[in-house]
Write a structure and sequence with these properties.
The chain is mostly helical. Among the domains are: about 150 residues, Leucine-rich Repeat Variant; about 130 residues; about 160 residues, Leucine-rich Repeat Variant (Alpha Horseshoe), CATH 1.25.10. It has 39 helices and no strands. Keywords: Repeat.
Amino acid sequence: MSVSKAMNDIWATLVPNTSKTVERYQDVILNELLNSMGNKEWRVREASTVALTDLIQTLPAERYQERMEDVWTMAFRGLDDIKETVRKAASGLTRALSKILVNGISVESGSSQTQANIMLEKLLPFLLGHKGILSDAEDVREFALSTILTLVKKSGKSIKPYIGQLIQEFILLMSTLEPQIINYLTLNADKYNLKSDEIDAKRLQGLGSSPIMNAIERLVDQVDENNIDIVVSKVQESVKKSVGLPSKAAASRVIVMLIMRQLYLIKPYGETLLNTCGSQLKDRNTTVSSSYATAAGYCCRVCSVDVVVKYSKKIQSMFFESEEEKPKIVAGIATEAVSKYSGDMFVSVASAFLPLAFFGKQYSSKDISKLFERVWTENTSGKGAIRLYFSEICDLVKEHINGQQFAMRQVSAKSIAIACDSLDSTAVASVHVDELFTILLKSCQGRSWAGKEDVLSALVSLTLKSKFYISEHPDVFQDVQKTVIVESKRRNKAYQKHALVSFADFAQEFPSVILFENALNIFEGIFSEDYYDSEDEDEDGTTNEKVIATSEISSRKNLTREADRMRALTSMVKIFQLYPDGSYNDGYLIFALNSLTATFDPKVYIPTWRSQLAVVEGISKISIVLKGHSLSDDIRNHLIESWNLIYHHNTKAETVENVKVQTVRTAGELVEIGDENLAHAVVKSLQTFKGREANSIVLVEITKVLQNHLE
């Protein structure tokens, strides 16, 4: 302080008029101060910095306009000085410079537009360069960024010529300014029991509150017809140059901003921006690719129909070509984005997106299917939509059902099955039935695979709904019948049990001798004791035994075998139908009755009440088919024998109530066949049962059957 006071006294003695003297020797003083700020002595550096602060506040800015960059350079150098007092003095200098700069470019504060342009032209490149926000010194970077953000906020129209460059620099800065610890956590998420996707989601969320993004919004608001071209160009460059999630995500958000805030200006650039977004859909980071998928959805607002259709094909390629789930998820996000953010355009090109959505919602992975499910649900209503896009769905099925990817084959199979199920006899007439039969028949060829049962189901469903077409194309009918028989004889047990359901549906509508003969052959094998001999090992490594111990009645193995037998019995009974002339196949009926009653005492599993119920339900359905038809002695005897076995097993005191009730109702169906001898045998058993049964509900059912018989 004493040195400062002494120097002030000397100055006051030698210099009578400070302002005139400083003005006269300003260049000399400025040069000396700038040189001294690099002196080895910290006191000299500190004093020079303070003096320079005083000087620039004394002189008008235009007086040192030519040296402004040098002043800023030395000020930032002082911020990174080793001595704290020098850094403190430099901080005061930079604040003063920032205030002068902001006032100098603010036309509203009285500055001329020309002066503002000159200052920005000189200082913006400096602040954006390696001596500013790209400096190695953290304090310098922070102050440079703060100054630029203030300029954006205060400069008004003066900043317009630099909007493109600023937006690009801001985008690229997002990753540079992100703390390194976040990158470390992302790369080592597993070590800390974290998920990288969750970290990325938080990083993306943080962009919204970033002051840089706020500045970008201000800049986007000032875009006009004079700078829109350079802005779009700079955004494209930013997308290509961006490294790191923050910058890449920021670039995608800028594209969205341009469309939201400058819709009419951006229309000529819609295809360009859509292609730019499309190029990033395969980014390794799912968060980044999803961000650009969303941006692409906005871009479709300002694109032509042809361009959006072309984009839909790119999405389809992503979904079908890769075996990985990530591209399929991105395809789902991209499809949903078009639907959500470009609704009017989506309606115009729905046929380019909704068939894929229908396909995608059948995918086995919930993460993928739920995305397409939302798109389909929000843009369609009921089965009519399936019929509307049936042709496009068939095209996708035809292309992928015989492909190398089993996942796509499964999706194709499920899709065509649901699509065929949506058709009725009227709708079938409006689709290309011949082509559809060709697709399904070809897809049923070859070995069984998971999902093939859906293709067979679709083939049978289509056949049942296309009776007129079938009647005029007997060759197609023969091909379908042959396919149904062949598929039902497959050795793959998991597949065969589903194939038999389709066989039964087909045989029920088209009963024939050849179908009954093949059904006999198939079910004889299924109901044989050695059916499970070739079964693979269980998950626990133990070999399957033909006979299950009594203690395993509730085991998964026992319940599975019983369920398989119930399903087979249902198909077997369903196949039993009358021929067109009213006759029926005696041999098949006898086999069906014997197979049903054999279920009471199987050799390969322990029966439960479910088996008891399945037997009576099967006999009941057979009785309905036989109602009103005469019975041969052999058939009558087999029916009476079957009833006696049912009565013996299902009317015990410990039998489940529901089984007893269904048994009595089945007795009623047998009586209604109309055969006097059969009815007598059944009624006699019911009267005996009534005399010893205590359950009131069962008694009501027995009384009802007996009264109906008397009437």
